[in-house]
Amino acid sequence: MEASSCSKAEPFALQVLGDSMQPEFMDEVVIVVDPEGVIRDGCYVVALDLKDEYIFRQYREHDGKHYLVPLNDLYDTEEFKGPSHVKGVVVQQAGKRRKERKFY
């Protein structure tokens, strides 16, 4: 396996696939994820779910439990193991034009 030129702490870009995070994040939009971002209730995260699969959702905490919440009501909210399983916090949604960029 070749060594990557990126540090584990450097932000990275991902393309959103599907409609589970609509209307805020449309299918195929690019998001920037910061592995060292501050995790707080209501932020958007990339995390490992209970099936150890990466998932993009909104992080919510309630009564000491941690949840991954889709914005599209057609998808289910999932409980998960908590902040230690968050791989990064979404800090930006890229747009085709500079004015379409959105920071979180």
Number of helices: 0
Give the averaged pLDDT, no decimals: 92
- Sheet with most strands: 8 strands, antiparallel
This entry's quaternary arrangement is single chain
CATH class: Mainly Beta
Anisotropy-based shape = globular
Strand content: 35-45%
Unreliable stretches: none
Helix content: under 10%
Count of the separate structural domains: 1
CATH architectural group? Ribbon
Explain what you see:
InterPro entries: LexA-like (IPR039418), LexA/Signal_pep-like_sf (IPR036286), Peptidase_S24_S26A/B/C (IPR015927). This is Peptidase S24/S26A/S26B/S26C domain-containing protein. It is built from no helices and 8 strands. It has about 100 residues and is an all-beta fold. The protein has a single domain, classed as Umud Fragment, subunit A (Ribbon).
Topology:
Blueprint: E1 12-15, E2 30-34, E3 44-48, E4 54-62, E5 65-69, E6 78-80, E7 86-93, E8 102-103
Antiparallel strand pairs: 1-2, 2-7, 3-4, 3-7, 4-5, 5-6, 7-8
Task: Write a brief caption for the model.
The protein is mainly beta.
How would you describe this structure in keywords?
single chain; 104 residues; mainly beta; Umud Fragment, subunit A; 8-stranded antiparallel sheet; 39% strand
